[in-house]
Design goal:
The protein is of the alpha+beta class and 305 residues long. The chain contains 9 helices and 8 strands. The strands form 2 sheets. It has a 4-stranded mixed beta sheet with strand order 4-1-7-8. The chain has a 4-stranded antiparallel beta sheet with strand order 3-2-5-6. Helix 2 packs antiparallel against helix 3, helix 4 packs antiparallel against helix 5 and helix 6 runs parallel beside helix 9. It starts with a helix and ends with a helix.
Length: 305
């Protein structure tokens, strides 16, 4: 049976163990001449590990279910009793994920089930925005005004990347409509000047942000790539306006029996977006700028082959 000291040592060791490992430790430390047979030891050990596996699976499943969700809380200053929608634009097809409604104080809260990080569109009444969600995020979104120049502001887990995205989106729209003059009203030289200003502003902001906010390198690279896609999209948007104007002028000339001399695409327009990347990941993960870029390219091709 073993000495009194050996039994005391064994009891002390068991006392320092916890949970299912206590029984496991007792079994493997039992002396060979103990009446507790080897067969019964193995049976008990087998049952112990079966229960351990089941409990581990249950705990893992519960942990996974808790961590595959992101929580969004909205505090709106202008959109009361307004519809709230969260949409995924995937492979050029929009899917509605969440529908909610702000109360009389502009408040609502809901969960979004996720399996991986993704970009989603969000609509709070008449206010539109973009939100980057990852499992485990707990975001508070404050809507500060309907105007596109006013960014949504974020706090809570995941706020850093979302404040970046929201600021960039609002600033790009602000520059596109600078001095009350939209892109479609600009000649090619005016546009190129504004386009350079836009790219410089966003690139400077990016560098200052990553220098002052601790973002993982992978996240910073993703945001930089997202900005480059936005530049492509702005360039194609202007190209669409110019070519659409050209088509309209061509038809006016034709209907009046005149020759149209401006049919050739300006070289500056051809050089705006010479290489458009095709990336199935961007299509699948909700990059709205990329999908709008492809839609614009398709539209241009249909009206100006």
């Amino acid at each position: 049976m073993g000495s009194h000291e050996e039994q005391s040592d064994r009891q002390q060791e068991l006392g320092n163990s916890s949970g299912l490992f206590q029984l496991y430790s007792a079994i493997i430390r039992t002396p060979q001449n103990h009446p507790y047979s080897t067969f019964e030891q193995m049976k008990t050990l087998s049952k112990t590990w079966r229960w351990f596996a089941i409990l581990s699976f249950i705990m893992l499943e519960c942990h996974t279910k808790e961590n595959d969700k992101a929580t969004i809380t909205i505090k709106s200053t202008t959109q009361f009793n307004a519809a709230v929608k969260v949409n995924l634009l995937k492979n050029l097809d929009e899917t509605k994920l969440i529908e909610s409604k702000t109360d009389s104080t502009g408040f609502t809260s809901f969960e979004v089930t996720l399996h991986k990080p993704i970009l989603l569109g969000i609509q709070i009444g008449k206010k539109y925005g973009e939100v980057y969600l990852s499992p485990g995020y707990n975001l508070v979104i404050k809507e500060n005004g309907q105007a596109y120049r006013i960014p949504l502001t974020f706090s809570g887990k995941g706020a850093e990347i979302n404040n970046y995205i929201s600021w960039v989106n609002s600033k790009v729209e602000d520059i596109k409509w600078a001095h009350g003059k939209g892109l479609y009203e600009l000649d090619i030289n005016e546009f190129l000047h504004r386009f350079d200003s836009l790219k410089t502003t966003i690139k400077d902001f990016h560098q200052n942000y990553v220098d002052s906010v601790a973002l993982p390198n992978e996240t910073a690279s993703m945001l930089q790539y997202k900005n480059s896609i936005k530049f492509f999209e702005v360039g194609q948007e202007y190209k669409f306006y110019r070519l659409n104007t050209s088509v309209n002028e061509k038809w006016k000339a034709f209907n009046s029996g005149q020759n149209y001399m401006g049919d050739k695409v300006p070289k500056e327009l051809e050089n705006l977006t010479q290489e458009i990347p095709f990336d199935t990941t961007l299509l699948a993960e909700g990059y709205q700028d990329y999908q709008m870029l492809l839609i614009t390219i398709g539209t241009i091709g249909s009206i100006y082959p």
